[in-house]
Write a structure and sequence with these properties.
eight-stranded mixed β-sheet, alpha+beta, about 675 residues, Rossmann fold
Length: about 675
């Protein structure tokens, strides 16, 4: 390489990436598990590669990507597309809301026009094919609770198989096509039963019971009861060992379940080999997720894909059992589609989501660290440092808190974090107590204590940052979305002075009010983690930031989306409480969103607004009018007035109850 080429490459590696470059790094392979065509010649996946989300296919041997659908449409709130090949290879079934509600559509492999199969007019949570390809089983809330329906193909004739107050979800056919297994949740979504019924819904029989495993997404954590090819055994998730492991149980209900490969690590995504002799699954070790295969009879598992850093997900066996397709992403690249040879371990990358022009080389790779909290508990975290010319001698830092709280930072691509690194900030992403991925005991440590010990873990993270010589310990911020927004509000109210700037994205400040206004899964979460109302009202008040907002000394930026269901009054309430107590704050909402900001244009705008706030309070850079001409509000007097229905908390922790909630536009 010439001297000029060397200088050009060096300059490119040190130059700052723009916000548009970073946001353009998007997964070509999506997040849903890939699907093999029945003949093994293609792998189908959901991708936004062409602009809109569509079904795409590619050869497992590599080659061009082929678009299958035209106008696949979107899906409703919390729904996924669930693409599934029919066993005969005639169709790909998928869920879409393009007709106005989530329905099952069929893409014919012969190139004829797509057809709408169902007309349920309600949510669809799961689907599976009958072995003969002549019907589907789906879970839908057509009658107000989730039930199992059997749908004939291609006529769409539909028969309801279950009814009752408890949710019935995640149906799957037995290999002989004579029965359907599904999951029935308890009222609290904590206990699960696997039930077998005849094809007409008759002769229901409970074949498995599992207890004490809260399922935030009404069955998605427990997942489908995956049945072996001989119909004798099923796989399921359970926390009965203290970790979320994959378990195996007899379909006839006789005999005790056993772990497929016992481990002090969380496991997920189990998949039977076509001959039923092996199980592929994912295992999580401190945020690094590898792909393993184990004999169904037991024995030591084989680590088939062992990344130094990264996340494997969605393993799918080829029809002949020789290869496994899967998704893989890491901190420097979002998900791509890969295939691995089971015998040799040889891997092939089938998509490439990274931009050219040296973008990959200019993205930062985190360091995994641990630090001690107030009680000696080790807290795992990801530490990102700006590098090269982007890193001054001393730079401010931001603690970035994940949602959940039962969630986990993993070895995944974080575009917002990468952008702030380009602006000269260090970022610490902790997994405080209450996070998943570290065992059930760790996961339960913040129950009935939101904003207590878990916040002290975050404060300990700020103290850890101060021990790093390159970090400006006098200028540390905090941010996060959902529970990260809750933690940010808690930091403002419960830990005054610890942080010099706080950005609360789509957070919640009053859990009694949240219980009264939110969708069902949030209510179930509150009841599981904080207790039932009214018995646990003192816990709800103690954990709610709005009752202690008079203590705040940290400038806070409250932001959230609005305009679509589900919404919330909580962000507005917190901003009003800050103003009522004469606290410095910014407030901004983003139109055309649920409470969470998701559209590309608004995500971009939100990131720039967050930067302006952190730059002002952590770097002393004056705030400029945003290029969209909409300046965040620094007062609400005369803007929102009392029409919002909120009664802000007064000094000393007065009432923050709600007289009403803002109107919402219903969007499936």
């Amino acid at each position: 390489m010439s001297t000029q080429d060397t200088r050009t490459a060096a300059g490119r590696s040190e130059s700052r990436l723009s916000i548009d470059q970073i946001l353009a790094v998007r997964s070509q392979a999506g997040s849903e598990a890939p699907q093999w065509s029945p003949d093994g010649r293609g792998i189908t996946f959901v991708s936004g590669l062409g602009g809109g989300v569509e079904l795409w296919s590619t050869s497992p041997d590599g080659g061009p990507l082929t678009r299958l659908t035209v106008g696949m449409g979107g899906v409703g709130h919390l729904a996924t597309f669930i693409p599934r090949w029919s066993p005969t290879g005639e169709y790909v079934a998928y869920v879409s809301s393009k007709s106005g509600a989530d329905e099952v559509w069929l893409w014919p492999a012969d190139g004829s026009a797509e057809v709408q199969l169902t007309r349920l007019g309600a949510r669809i949570e799961a689907l599976s094919w009958a072995p003969d390809g002549r019907s589907l089983a789906v879970a839908s809330n057509m009658y107000g609770t989730f039930d199992i329906f059997r749908v004939a193909v291609p006529s769409g004739e539909t028969r309801r198989l279950t009814e009752g107050p408890l949710y019935s979800v995640y149906p799957t056919f037995t290999p002989d096509g004579q029965s359907i297994l599904f999951v029935r949740l308890s009222e609290s979504w904590v206990d699960h039963e696997v039930v077998r019924v005849d094809l007409d819904g008759g002769n229901p029989e409970v074949v498995l019971r599992d207890h004490d495993f809260f399922d935030y997404h009404y069955g998605r954590s427990f997942d489908y009861p995956a049945v072996s090819s001989d119909g004798r055994a099923l796989l399921f998730h359970s926390q009965r060992s203290g970790w979320t492991n994959v378990w195996l149980a007899p379909v006839d209900g006789a005999g005790e379940p056993r772990q497929v490969a016992a481990a002090e690590a969380d496991q997920s995504d189990p998949a039977w080999s076509p001959d039923g002799t092996r199980v592929a699954y994912i295992e999580n070790h401190n945020g690094t997720l590898d792909l393993r295969v184990v004999s169904a009879a037991g024995g030591a598992p084989r680590v088939l894909v062992a990344p130094e850093s990264g996340v494997c997900s969605g393993p799918a066996w080829s029809p002949d059992g020789t290869r496994i397709a899967y998704l893989f992403g890491d901190p420097n690249c979002p998900n791509d589609l890969w295939v691995v040879d089971v015998a040799s371990g040889a891997r092939r990358r089938l998509t490439d989501s990274m931009l050219g022009g040296g973008v990959h080389e200019r993205l930062a790779r985190p360091e995994k660290v641990h630090y001690r909290s107030f009680d000696g508990l080790e807290i795992p975290a990801y530490l990102y440092r700006p590098s090269g010319q982007l890193a001054p001698e001393s730079y401010p830092a931001i603690l970035w808190i994940h949602g959940g709280p039962t969630s986990q930072y993993m070895d995944t691509f974080q575009p917002q974090v990468q952008y702030f690194l380009q602006q000269g900030y260090a970022v610490l992403m902790p997994n405080p107590r209450g996070s998943s991925g570290y065992g059930r005991h760790f996961e339960d440590l913040n129950n009935r204590d939101w904003g207590g010990a878990d916040l002290r873990d975050v404060v300990a993270g700020a103290e850890y940052l101060k021990t790093l010589p390159e970090v400006d310990g006098e200028h540390i911020g905090i941010t996060g979305t959902s529970y990260g927004g809750i933690m940010t509000m808690n930091a403002v109210a419960f830990a005054p002075g610890v942080f010099q700037a706080a950005v609360a994205c789509s957070g919640y400040c009053d859990f009694v009010n949240m219980h009264g206004e939110q969708e069902l899964r949030h209510i179930k979460l509150l009841e599981f983690e904080l207790g039932m109302l009214p018995e646990s009202v003192e816990v709800y008040h103690r954990c709610s930031a709005i009752y202690q907002v008079h203590q705040a000394t940290t400038p806070c930026f409250v932001l959230h989306g609005e305009g679509k269901y589900p919404g919330s009054s909580e962000g507005r309430m917190f901003a009003l409480a800050l103003e009522a107590n004469y606290k410095p704050f910014w407030y901004k909402t983003y139109p055309g969103e649920t409470y969470y900001v998701a559209s590309p244009a608004n995500v971009r705008r939100q990131m720039l607004d967050m930067q302006a706030f952190f730059d002002l309070y952590l770097k002393g850079i004056p705030h400029r009018l945003p290029d969209d001409g909409t300046r965040p509000l620094t007062h609400l007097s005369g803007v929102l007035g009392t029409g919002s229905g909120a009664r802000p908390a007064r000094a000393g922790g007065g009432s923050a109850s709600m007289a009403g909630t803002p109107g919402r536009d219903v969007a499936n």
